[in-house]
Amino acid sequence: MKKESRKVIIAGNWKMNMTPKAAAETAAKTAELTAGKNGCEVVLCVPFVDIAAAMEATKGTNVKIGAQNVHFEKKGAFTGEIAADMLVECGVEYVIVGHSERRQYFGETDTTVNLRTKAALDAGMKVILCLGEVLAERQAGITEEIVAMQTKLDLAGIPADQIANVIIAYEPVWAIGTGLTATPEQAEEVCALIRATVAKLYGDAVAEAMTIQYGGSMNDGNAAELLSKVNVDGGLIGGASLVPEKFAKIVDAAQA
Ligand code: 13P
Description:
Helix content is about 40%, strand content about 15%. By secondary structure, it is α/β, with parallel strands linked by helices. Helix 10 (about 225) links the parallel strand 7 and strand 8. Helix 1 packs parallel to helix 2. The relative contact order is 0.16. Bound molecules: 1,3-dihydroxyacetonephosphate.
């Protein structure tokens, strides 16, 4: 399968930003500025409490509203957590799992990332599964080993027929929020490695069909070059997704 036949997804990760009122305004503006840009899927992953407001503000537009995490149990005594069925009932189609900030600050491991991914897939959601090396790992020359290992552990036990609902976001941790973007060549090299790892697990056809995003200081100035790479099928955007004008330019860059 050629890159052109894969689904390109430009997703914003708002992280812990925006009250519901601000979310409604920003989501509506994003929808307005990206109207008719059907060359890619446009998703905004917003804080849980913003989902309803953002959903309402983007009704009938091409912007989809996603969440930033999901718990692996269906319900129960897990204070502060949100279950997959709750998100589905709110109309959520996409959920981020395994973001490096969850791994770094909230003790998320490949085991819990794998469990959360399975729960979201079982509930019928699409998962944006984040992985990537930290700076020390890149400097030690073990990026390939780390990323291949994360890919295998995070996808462990997930049947091939569910993989169509998995998007992998390669987010080198050293590039997140730092202004240090991976070069297009670095992004391409690791996204290709992820695809090759998925091919070993599930075969070429499944791997070729998978959307693999790059994330880490992607902005309106560097998006076009990153997205021009054959194995980079979209972006997961933090800071620039908070500014509709900037985010819309990234969506523009994905129209080619
Ligand atoms: P920045 O775009 O702010 O670097 O964040 C990237 C990211 O973590 C998206 O999930």
